[in-house]
Structure formats: structure tokens, C-alpha cells
Amino acid sequence: MSSIDRSKLDAYMPDLIALRHDIHAHPETAFEEVRTSALVAEKLKEWGIEVHEGIGRTGVVGVLKGSRPGQRRIGLRADIDALHIFERNAFDYASTVEGKMHACGHDGHTTMLLGAARYLAQDPDFAGTVHFIFQPAEESAGGAPAMMKDGLFDRFPCDAVYGLHTEPGRPVGEIASRIGPALAGSMSFHVTFKGTAGHGGAAPHLADDCTIPVAHFILGLQSIVGRKVAAIDAAVISIGHISGGSKGSPNVMPAEMLVSGTARYFRDDVQQIILRGLRDQAELFAKASNCSVDIQINDGTPPLVNHPEAFESALAAAEKTFGKDKVERERPLSTGGEDFAYFANTVPGTYMWMGGGVGPDGLVHDVHTDRFDFNDASIPYGVSYWVNLVHTELRSDETPTQDGEVA
């Protein structure tokens, strides 16, 4: 049962939907969210919330203190950036920026947190402080570290931090999460094999052919998970890019080839196994072919691990908002990555996935696709969840003001 007064929320739901559509129509990618950040700051100020801008370059933090005394402080986080995708939707609020679109629901995440901020500013009946964290550059895995580098948790201390994401395909009115590991850690690798060029037809014996170690390396990578990682530990290694030579000169053996890929894991020791195996195999196969190799590792995000106490608070708020039978407590592990993990590694945190249902055409369009659109029907659920979480964490009056679940 929700403790939120739906009549108050219903009064400005049209405003929230219009706001979401406006953000969707004007997508901005990593660290370029100037318009979006300004819009967020403008709304927060309009509702009398203390605003801090320029945190992590384009991040915004709103600070709201409850009307009752309390020392506990929590952070609620929404991501604000878009993706480099050409939108194929034809509705009137489709992207106006060619090659960019809100294809992961961040327009909806931002709107729901703004809706909660507005509701709580009108009725701050809680004990403690809420930090509304609007984070840039989630998709590039750089926004959370950038905000922390700018002193996010030093300037705005939090005893717990929470995130919320839409999940297309899960019915609207349902929510899910799991205690402990929830999302994988990620990293990318770029391995360059260097030999000597040669005539592949007339004189291959005069060259140090770097295509041979590349072939062995790509196949050998698959043995790392199969033979070095314990069967009970999940891990993935995939190749996403191979380049070298020229299509127009297939008889010329390239002097250099690049292999790039990604790895996912749930435990730090598994990451080290992958790193050692990757380096050992690259160096071994390069040496066997009289080639050299350059290995570049780019860290992505650490594993996202939901903290037990924060999870229980999130679960209580979810059950109050959605009803116990609509809350999945053991969502399957996902090898997706999320830089909210940086926050949750610093402050006890928990991340939830809220049902996004289907698109207007009755089909499920997954995130990061050119037909995805955040489902406006889920906005009141998200706002209610955030408000109920504040009431749960900051010991607000939990007496329902209106019976019934969020509709």
C-alpha cells in the first residue's frame, strides 16, 4: 500500500509527462548535458530546493531537509545522459538531435526523481536530508567517478544511496532486484599484434605474419573462462572488433592487427584471472610468431553489489508502493554494467529495476535500441517508490493518506 497522496501527484502528472517528452526530444550525450542539467536545476530551484551545479562537469545535486529533526542522509540517483543512436520513432517528441536519442530511459529516470523532489518539497514530513543526485555520463562509465572526484560524498554525505532503472518487458506496476551481486563488472581490451608486412602470395616466408597469433589469440581467449574460471563463477569474454590490412589488397599481409573486445565478471579475483590469461596468451602467441604485442586494458565498471541493509529498505519501500506480490526479490544476475556501482562501492547502496511494459505498438523494445521509448504509465510508480523510500529510510510518518496501490 502506498503512503503517497495520489491526488497531489495526479495534479502535476501532466507536467511530468510533458517534462519527460521535452527531455526525450533534446538528448545530450556524456558530459554534454548542458540543457538537461539547466532544466533540472531550474525545476529544483522553482520548488525551493537547494541546488548545486557543475559536479562531475554537468552533474546536479539538490538538497532537501525534512521538517522534523534527524541526522540520517540518503542519496537518490538518476542518470541524465543519452546515447549515440539514430531514433526511428515517429512520435511528436522524438529526438530533434540527429544521431542521438534517449534509448535507455534516462529521460524517465530524471523525470521520476524530479517528480519525487517536487512532492517531497511540498510535504517534507521526514527526519533527515535527501540528496537528489542527477548524474551525467552513465553510458560512458565516467559520470559517477567524475562526480566523486568533485567530492560528491564529501560535500553531500550519504548513509545510503539508491538507484532505479526501467526494465522493458516487465509489466508496469512490478519491480525487481536481488541482494548481493546484481550486475557484472566490465572492462574492455585492445590488443595490437605487430609483425612485418609481406606479399601473401609470392613471399609469405619473408614476413612475420601477425594474422597467425591473432587467430590463435581469439580462439585461446575462450579457454580462459572454460578452464581457468571456476564453473560456479560466471564470466564472459567476447571479441567485438578486428582490423588490419586493406580489403583492396588481399594479397598483402598486414604489418599490424588490432583485436578489441570486452569481458564481464562478478568477482574481483575472476577479473584478475581474465587479465592474466589475456596477457599470457597474447604474449605467448606473439612470441611464437616472432611478433610483438601491445596490450591496452580499459576499466569499465566494477560489479554492482546491493548492500543488505540498503536492500531491505528498498524492498520495504517497493512493497509499500507496488504490493508484496509485485516485487521480485531474486532477479537473475545480469552481465550488464552500471556505473552506479562506483557509488554503491563507496556508500551502502541498492539498485532496483521497475517494470516498463511494452511500447505503444504492443511490442517490447529493449533499451539501447532505436525504437525504445520510456513508458509514461510507469512514472507515478517511480515517483511513489522514491517518496516511500524517503519515508522508510528517514522514518517519516508511514500512515497512509490514501488507500490503495498506485494505479
UniProtKB/TrEMBL annotation:
Keywords: Hydrolase, Plasmid. Residues 184-264 form the Peptidase M20 dimerisation domain. Transmembrane segments: none annotated. The keyword Hydrolase applies. This is M20 aminoacylase family protein.
